[in-house]
Amino acid sequence: MNVLWLVCLLVLIAPTVYIFITAARKKLALVMLGTPENRFDQKGSRFRQFVNNVLLGKKLMNEPYGIFHVVIFWGFVFIVLAELPFILEGLLVDTELPTFGIGPIFFMIKDVLAGCVFLGLIGALIRRWIVRPARLYRTFEAFLVVFFIMMIILTDWLFAGARLAMAAEPAPLYELAPFYHLFASAMGNASPSGLEAIANVMWWLHVIILLTFTAYIPNSKHLHLIAAPINSFFASLKPTGGQIAPMDLEDEDATEFGVSRIEGFTWKQLLDSFSCGECGRCMDNCPAQLTGKPLNPKELLARTLKNHLIEKGEVMLKYGLKSTGEENEEKIAEITGENPEDAAILAKSLINDVVTEDVIWSCTTCMSCQIQCPVSNEHVNKIIDMRRYQAMMEGAFTPELETALRNVENNFNPWGIGWSNREDWAKDLGVKLLRDAEDPENVEYLYWVGCAGSFDSRAQKVATATVKILTAAGVDFAILGTEEKCCGDFVRRAGNEYAYQSLVAENVETLNGYKVKKIVTACPHCLNALKNDYPSFDGNYEVFHHTQLINQLITDGKLTLKEEDQLKDAGLEPRTIAYHDSCYLGRYQQEYQAPRDLFARVPGVTLMEMDRHHDKSFCCGAGGGRMWMEETLGTRINQTRVEQALAKDPQAIGANCPFCMTMLEDGVKEKVDPEKGITVVDPAELIVKML
Amino acid sequence: MNIVVLVKQVFDSEAKIILKNTTQIDDTGVTQGMNLLDENAVEEALTLKQKFGGEVILVSMNPVKTEKALRDALAMGADRAILITDPVLQNADEFTAAQVLAKAISTLNYDVILSGKASSDYQASQVPARIAEILGIPHVNVVVNIDIQGDKAVVTREVDGGSEIIEVPLPSIITAQQSLNTPRYPTVPNIMKAKKKELKVLSLADLGLTADEVAAKMSILEYSLPPVRKAGRIISGDPAQASAELASLLQSEAKVI
Predict the structure, then answer these.
(1) What are the structural domains of chain B?
(2) Residue A240 belongs to some domain of the structure
(3) Is A337 part of any domain?
(4) Residue A306 exposure: Cα atoms within 13 Å on the Cβ side
(5) Reduced to 3 states, what is the DSSP secondary structure of residue A138?
(6) Which stretches of chain B sit within 8 Å of chain A by CB?
(7) Where is B5: in which H helix or E strand?
(8) Residue A482: closest CA among chain B residues belongs to which residue?
(9) In chain B, which residues have their Cβ closer than 8 Å to the Cβ of A421?
(10) pLDDT in tens, A370-386
(11) What is the pLDDT of residues A104-117, one digit of tens each?
(12) Looking at the domain assignment, is residue A502 inside a domain?
């Protein structure tokens, strides 16, 4: 036993542990400034989520080079596990090494993985310093960590190699570790005293770097190492489209709605910022970011919100403040007198001083950032929470959005057309109205038309096709007509939870009054609202998209379509269709297949995939209330999407959502010569021609 | 500065008008709300209150007891409201409204009276002028800017092809054009507070008026709906032939040439 070394080691460990614990406790205290949220339920599912996304790196491997991270992750785990034997080996000079059951196989795996990690880190350096994609930031922090890990591996190899070369007998423990032997043979000719010196120096270098790295982690963005696994465990288990928390608007004591102070976010929302590893997949898929708008989801979480939390949170902790709301007004006034600098930090408002309104309103709630995020961060709710403050506390909307909201309040549709005209589109189609049904309870499906299907002339064509198809298949269905009101999707996502909840209450009362059980709709926004948002308000229904139901009807043989030779005059000219997955059917419901299947059933149609498709599909620009807002910043999202479709040279663009159709048709008008006759088409519009 | 704002509850502009009979409009299920130009008046009142302090009092008249428009105006930030309601007001005309509202206003302590320049339902623009007459105060209408200077107001009113600046002593009654301001969207805390604000409901008797005193000068003989607009027609075929047919149809059917 090398007592001197042990003493020196302990002297180094003590400050490391102190720095680590102090920093970790501070970060924990910062996160705990957030409001409460229960994420401790369903522990089994959470554990599975942890295994999938942390241990197996499933979300990481959605992109091919994610495998590098998985290798680095596992290599790092083994390297950490091997640290104790490494340290003991240095200390116990003449004593037999206790192996804790760790055998030659362990060291083989560890050594091979260490080699892979080393190579992976070289790859990471190349990706950051030579062929850097825009989404990766080149920072000193990133370099430092790569350097630390490479040095930890290298010093281990040199230490073990020197020891092996010195040893009189072969060490059975390391006999399967290739790099150890490689380094040993490379140093075979060195003198024993030279080898001993190398071993001693490398051991100390290794220990010092290891301890420095340990102390560094909780003080840097590499807190990711600790926060990301925790964050993955606590990630939302709710369906993608049902993660917006309902607000208690009946609460008489509530004085503030939405979030305008960093500590107004929940602890989980704050933890997100520390979990971010800055991979940038979110910004690579964000329609706002890619069209030159000020919203950058990575910057927002990993920098803007995190830096503000650290700055303001530290001042709050210094004075023992739990919040900077009205209840602490006096205390803050005191601080203003004593320390104006601290007070200025406390007075910074989250909205405007930290996050601009343009950032908040650029989001289309397309959910791509969250779906791509390997550490399961939840970006969209933060934006909606800030919108809630703007909407409900400030009444601050753009004038166009305010008009749409007023229209919904007065006429229950964003276009503001008189609500009494809601069923006019169906007058000549012989559609049953639920209020006229003899036994409304037993009508199998409610066809929820939605505002677009009811009032927008383009969407009415899809609604008409849907009605004809359902009728031909003998489906027992009815519509609500004038009893139907806006589902509230955009109202909620624009932050106006107050107006939203009154709409929901009225719709749920109508639906439950008729004991509606199954709903079909041609609008993915209505679909998501009814299926994922309404359960929080006693609205529980089985909800289908029209493409899902129609596809099922054909599969079940309930709907027969004409064969190809009978369709000569049906107007189904052969054509190539570039298919656009809407966010609210695709990422929100993970339904990618039904619309594709329907298109595939149409003779002469060739379906083409755009470069961004399925869960990486690119938003049309209309979600989250953006349908009702002017797009003044950057380039237009709908035009960008149309350009992506045009790259495939299609004759038509396939869609499944009325908002997408509007946006894509507008984009086609602006980007394509009308002579070319490029159209936007819903699969139901082709299927109806095959009846 | 105490400000009285006249608020009228009207049909939503998109409402489908259905006649109950030849002299009555059916209001069942019709969305009703504050007259939009009255929102501009409320907004202006709130801006003035912010500048000069005082109280914003809403005054409204409706044959049925309905609070929607007043609660909305209270949610914007007005302090309290008075609603005069009485079944006999069912046949009220502009004369009736002016008599009733003027009487209610005369019980208040006010520096200025604001309202929209017209109500979106009947568009008569008479009530403010009649009230001015009854109360013996000046009246300026179609106003796009108000500048209060001590005991007088310098107001800009819109006239054909330009604007006119008028100085009026206070109190006076000023009516808003749409471009006067942008009405605020009520915040949720204000909507909550509005539910508890004072909304005094008075009958004609409470004001010391009798039905005869305020009986309408005008009586409705008959309401009728405008004829339904026919769908457009496309004349197809050879351009020369089609244009000849169009010309003959414009002459014989549409009778415009």
Answers:
(1) 3-207 (3.40.50.620), 227-257 (no CATH)
(2) no
(3) yes
(4) 22
(5) coil
(6) 12, 14-16, 29, 31, 33, 182, 184-189, 191
(7) strand B3-6
(8) B29
(9) 16
(10) 999 999 999 999 999 99
(11) 888 899 999 999 99
(12) yes
